[in-house]
Amino acid sequence: MITPVWGTYYIDRWLDMCFASLRSDGNIPYLVEHCDFELAVVTTSASVVQMQESPKFNSATAGVSVRFVTMDEFLPTEGEIAYGVPLTLAYAKAILDLGEIGIGSYVILMNADVVVASGSLVSLLARIQDGCGIIAASGIRAIDGDTQEPLLSYIDRQTGVLAITPRTMMRLANEHLHSTVSGRIVNDQSPVESTYYHQIFWRISDDCIAKRAFLLHPLCFRVDHLMKKVLCPVDYGFLTEICPKGHFCVLTDSDEYLMLELQARDSLSHLLQVAPRSRSLKRHLSRLATAIGSQIATWSTAEHRRSARNTIYYHANELPLDLKESVKPFESFVDGILDRLPPPVSHVGHFQWLPAVRIYREEMARAGSSASISLLDDPRNGSP
Predict the structure, then answer these.
(1) Span between the terminal Cα atoms of the chain, in Å
(2) Exposure letters 134-143 (e unless 16+ CB within 10 A, then b)
(3) Domain that includes residue 304, residue range
(4) Choice among 91-95, 99-103, 181-185, 268-272 with the minimum mean pLDDT
(5) Nearest-CA neighbor of 88 among 373, 383, 378?
């Protein structure tokens, strides 16, 4: 399992929330018992010392094999920069550090700012045993301030383990859905909608939401090829580069895997707009289909479009008995968009990645740090 995390505040939050949930039954303890498990923490040299000397860290990781991978070269010596490119580089370095001996191993990419329901990682071994080389998943977002306090009440004060069942977590998420979710529920006809649809939601019932996502998290995959240069964001083409022929599957039921992403209330609010009035749901969906299709056509890769063919269900109770009928209009809506798209954009030289790399290099140079990063130094990423 690879987790990039650095800085005192983020390390403490990771230990208290994300890692606390990963310590619950059916997560890391299950993997430690049933396979050769290692936790790779990608961080700065200063943070390595901090964690090694921390009683909280040592207590939380007792019984777990921990390896540190340093990432000082990806961050400026002074000041701060946007985390997107360094985060991608951190994952890439940890995978590359496995070396040739790591070929055939499975890696789990786990962000440090999520909470995972108990029992979620059991599904990984089952999928691997079924022959899957790639296991993708997606979380659901909730408002941080409103959700964090109830979540913390599930922490065992003696062990520090955060144990919460998927349905309990989903009830909590439903009460505090982030606007990046509610604004993308296309059949709600809310007065506020998104202007950017990398995820599309459909309300099945009060406690059940369906989702199609172009950006799925590459949760777990087999390392078939060592990627020596980073040519794209982690969720744009890592799977194509590292496991190009792996059998692809998606964890589609929140009972099986549920990851909660906590976001500030106004996070990404610039992607919201007042929704035009529609006289019917049919007209509303027709307008959205055109808008979403035009937008998706400009940036989606083959990997994104493969991901979006899978319907994911988030539910706080039993799935509705008429689920297949209830979800048909949603699947027809998204499949219709996909079927009308032009050929996909290449994940290499992507127009969203190249400016991000350029800005990252400029920020590093302004901070007096080296703008030449070995993992990025490739003609396909532009001039260093």
Answers:
(1) 31
(2) bbbbbbbbbb
(3) 2-339
(4) 268-272
(5) 373
User: Considering Cα of 67, then 70, then 109, then 228, what sign does the dihedral take?
Assistant: negative
Q: Is 272 helix (H, G, I), strand (E, B) or coil?
A: strand
Considering only CA atoms, which of 222, 262, 3, 20 is closest in space to residue 124? 222
The helix or strand, by DSSP H or E, that contains position 322, with its residue range, turns out to be none
Rounded Cα–Cα distance for residues 219 and 111 (Å): 10
> What's the farthest any 2 CA atoms get from each other in the chain?
63
Q: What pLDDT digit, counting tens, does each position of 196-211 carry? A: 999 999 999 999 999 9
**Lookup result for tokens 């010392």:** 49
Q: Are strands 2-4 and 38-43 parallel, antiparallel or unpaired?
A: parallel
Q: And the tokens for 96?
A: 């590359």
Measured in whole angstroms, the distance separating CA 297 from the mean position of its chain's CA atoms is 22
For 116, list phi and psi in degrees, rounded to 5: -110, 130
pLDDT, tens digit, for every residue of 123-150?
Answer: 999 999 999 999 999 999 999 989 999 9
Instruction: Encode 251-276: b = buried (16+ Cβ within 10 Å), e = exposed.
Output: bbebbbbbbbbbbeeeeeeebbeebe
**SS3 at position 284:** helix
Global pTM reads 0.95
- The H or E element containing residue 200 is strand 199-205
| HSE-up of residue 141 (Cα within 13 Å, Cβ side) | 18
Cβ proximity of 118 and 256 under 8 Å: no
Q: Using an 8 Å Cβ cutoff, are 97 and 5 in contact?
A: no
Which tokens sit at 268? Answer: 């990404």
- Domain-located, residue 35: yes
CA angle 25, 27, 30 (to 5 degrees): 75
Q: Which residues fall within 8 angstroms of residue 138, CB to CB, at 6 or more apart?
A: 199, 211, 213, 215, 216, 217, 250, 259, 312
Rounded CA-CA distance 277/303 in Å is 34
Q: Give the integer Cα–Cα distance in Å for 16 and 161.
A: 8
Number of domains in the chain: 1
In a domain, 370, yes or no: no
Banded pLDDT at 384 (limits 50, 70, 90): low
Residue 303, both tokens: 């990997």
Is residue 292 domain-resident?
yes
Calpha distance 316→319 (Å, rounded): 8
Q: Supply the DSSP symbol for 225.
A: S
Residue 367: inside a domain: no
